[in-house]
Amino acid sequence: MTKKQLDESVDYLKKKGFDNPEIGIVLGTGLGQLVDEIQDPIEAHYNHIPYFPLATVEFHTGKLIYGTIAGKKVVVMQGRFHLYEGYDFLDITYPIRVMHQLGIKKLFVSNAAGAINLSYKKGDIMLIEDHINLQGGSPLAFKNVAEFGDRFADMSEPYDLDMRTKIEAIAQKEDISLQKGVYASVVGPQLETKAEYRMLKILGADAVGMSTVPEVIVANHLRLPILAVSVLTDECDPDNLQPVNIQEIIEIAGNTEPKMIQLFKELIKVI
């Protein structure tokens, strides 16, 4: 990755009308309805943006969408990239660097995750307070990283405290149950074994997924305040583990998403 490549990606998007967005949003698996809230949308398909990772079949509709939500300019990633698709950490996080270069001042991230904490249930939303990186690498581990920011990025408080406080107040006001906890990020795409779920609980994870952490690391590298939520789509009880049903996971994510959208929209108004 070079600054020249980033500049070319950004120039392409600016020419399409992506003009100084304030907030970047990354949508997770089964969480695409937020795009319906965007007013005056301008779309850019990933495959057309210079140096963007090429979308796989699963994400052939992957695109960046620019427009307005709750009176603020946003740029939304519909479809993200994962390690399990064969991308590397630089591919996965390239869109975050592009959105930052476009001008975003805040980043929202969502994902679908499994509940390790068994007091949390399917359909709950969990505000991520901290994370455990179990993906075996870092998006900052490349030779010329110092051209883009400090090599040794601080991660003492990776998720913005001010936005977390605000979204908790919004959830209370809107009567939306909002759990809080630690998100563990694994490679996937296989789901975890019973022993792995027990390990994750011992490590202190409340939820597990296959994304988010690389984007959060890069956001911190760019000193970009970030807020992240997990929609909990299954309960990972090693003593009563059932075979996974991907269709059910996507359905639960879709059913819970309106609450997440409400939280995001109200947060956009007050930041």
How many strand elements?
A: 9
- Order of strands in the sheet with most strands: 5-8-7-6-9
Low-confidence stretches: none
Number of domains: 1
Q: Terminal Cα separation, in Å?
A: 32 Å
The CATH class name reads: Alpha Beta
Order of helices and strands: HEEEEHEEHEHEHEH
Q: What is the typical, i.e. mean, pLDDT? A: 94
Number of helices: 6
The chain-level structural class is alpha/beta
Q: Tell me the overall shape.
A: globular
Helix fraction?
25-40%
Q: Do you know the CATH architecture?
A: 3-Layer(aba) Sandwich
Largest sheet: 5 strands, mixed, barrel
CATH topology assignment: Rossmann fold
The proportion of residues in beta strands is: 15-25%
The rounded Rg comes to 18 Å
Fourth-tier CATH superfamily name: Nucleoside phosphorylase domain
